[in-house]
Specification:
single chain; alpha+beta; 15-stranded mixed beta sheet; two-stranded antiparallel sheet; 39% strand
């Protein structure tokens, strides 16, 4: 594509936790499961997560559920599908302050892996799909050996609809969170699961060079999952106090995107004309007209009155066996020629639409901004503080995050 990411910045403003860190000594706390860095596909990461207004593709669903039914410029067919998969390994996260807890090198992690997969199906203005994002990482003990393995899985599923030929898209669905912790040398410590709702929209008028998007998510409070054989949930497992819940706060996202240059940002969805339907209707009409003339000739030959005969429904059918056999042969030949003509015509239309897309100007500069508001999670600590068993409060107040991303293609 030749697209170059020029600038990506993410500024976060949050209220710091007050007081000294005290040890966790009970189950009266929750885990704030909000991801601290932007973890997404390469394009969204390159835009610093400022994707609420752009909102297209299945990988955009965690930012705006309108992505379920928001078509890209190249999605021209009535039926389209979208698949995504990406993997991110630890890299510098293994030694840097991954959890953004402000403690210098912070709480180190090892064997960090982020993965996401998703699939989306679009038919006309309707779209739907599912996407899964997962974080897996090992937390080392004092001697450097892995002490705990933590996984946080987020699943989004839903659908959307494009109004006014896709110039206003709305979407909604559900998000679920699954949090598992395993201790080295022990069985699974515990698992917590929960779900919430999410809705979003994006305005993308064809004649305007900008988009505006918004999304809202309800809180998620995950509860401890037990099996049928577990009569008493343990308060501690392998020395770790079990949290009462894993939570995600309410979230509000608003964003805008502006594209400068000759390349269009938005496009109306105009379905291709159904050539096959028109050609088949024309063939049926010709066949009916031939039979109508044959019926008239037969009635006149028998000196019978000729009633009003109209296509496509004839109340009187031709009786001449020789004519009917010849007509069946003509119909077979016409259908073969028609199917060949349909195939050639549809291929020509597809080629034309592809050429029109390729002929679009490529030079552009895209600026995207997001404002992300997160509500509080009561009595919450981060995953790092939980594994350290320290009451380092996080997410106890509302948080504001501002994101700015710029990408462009100055040379076609």
């Amino acid at each position: 594509m030749g697209r170059a990411a020029l600038i990506a910045a993410c500024l976060c403003v949050a209220a710091p936790a007050a007081g000294q860190d005290a040890p966790i000594d009970g189950n009266d706390f929750a885990i704030d499961a909000v991801a601290t860095p932007v973890l997404a596909s390469s394009r969204i990461t390159g835009l610093a997560g400022a994707y609420t207004a752009l909102a297209e593709g299945i990988d955009g669903v965690p930012w705006n559920p309108a992505s379920y039914a928001s078509r890209s410029l190249w999605e021209l067919d009535v039926l389209e599908y979208d698949l995504t998969a990406s993997v991110l390994f630890s890299g510098s996260f293994a030694s840097n302050d991954y959890f953004l807890n402000g403690r210098g090198q912070g709480f180190g992690i090892e064997n960090f892996v982020f993965a996401d997969v998703g699939a989306r199906l679009q038919y006309g203005p309707i779209g739907g799909g599912v996407t899964l994002q997962a974080q897996f990482y090992d937390v080392p003990s004092d001697d450097g050996a892995p002490a705990a393995s933590v996984s946080l899985v987020s699943i989004h599923g839903g659908g959307g609809y494009g109004l006014f030929d896709g110039q206003l898209v709305v979407g909604g669905g559900a998000r679920a969170v699954i949090f598992d912790t395993s201790i080295l040398g022990a069985e699974e410590a515990f698992s917590l699961q929960g779900a919430g709702l999410e809705v979003g929209s994006v305005f993308r008028h064809e004649r305007l060079p900008f988009r505006v998007g918004a999304a809202f998510r309800t809180p998620v409070r995950s509860q401890v999952v037990t099996d049928d054989e577990m009569t008493d949930v343990p308060r501690q497992v392998a020395g770790l106090w079990r949290p009462r819940a894993v939570g995600l706060p309410w979230e509000v996202q608003v964003g805008g995107a502006l594209q400068i240059g000759p390349r269009p940002l938005n496009r109306r969805f105009r379905p291709k004309k159904d050539l096959a339907r028109g050609l088949r209707a024309e063939l049926r009409h010709r066949q009916c007209e031939r039979e109508r003339e044959q019926v008239r000739r037969e009635l006149e030959a028998r000196s019978e009155p000729v009633p009003e005969l109209r296509c496509p429904r004839l109340r009187v059918r031709a009786r001449d066996r020789a004519w009917r056999e010849a007509e069946r042969q003509r119909v077979r030949e016409e259908k073969l020629r028609m199917e060949e003509a349909i195939e050639i015509a549809e291929a020509s239309v597809d080629d034309l639409w592809a050429e029109l897309y390729e002929a679009m100007p490529r030079r552009h500069l895209l600026v995207s901004v997001d404002l992300h508001l997160l509500g509080p999670v009561d009595d919450a600590v981060g995953i790092d503080a939980f594994l350290e068993q320290t009451r380092r409060t996080r997410g106890d107040r509302w948080t504001t995050t501002f994101r700015l991303g710029v990408e462009g293609e100055p040379w076609p």
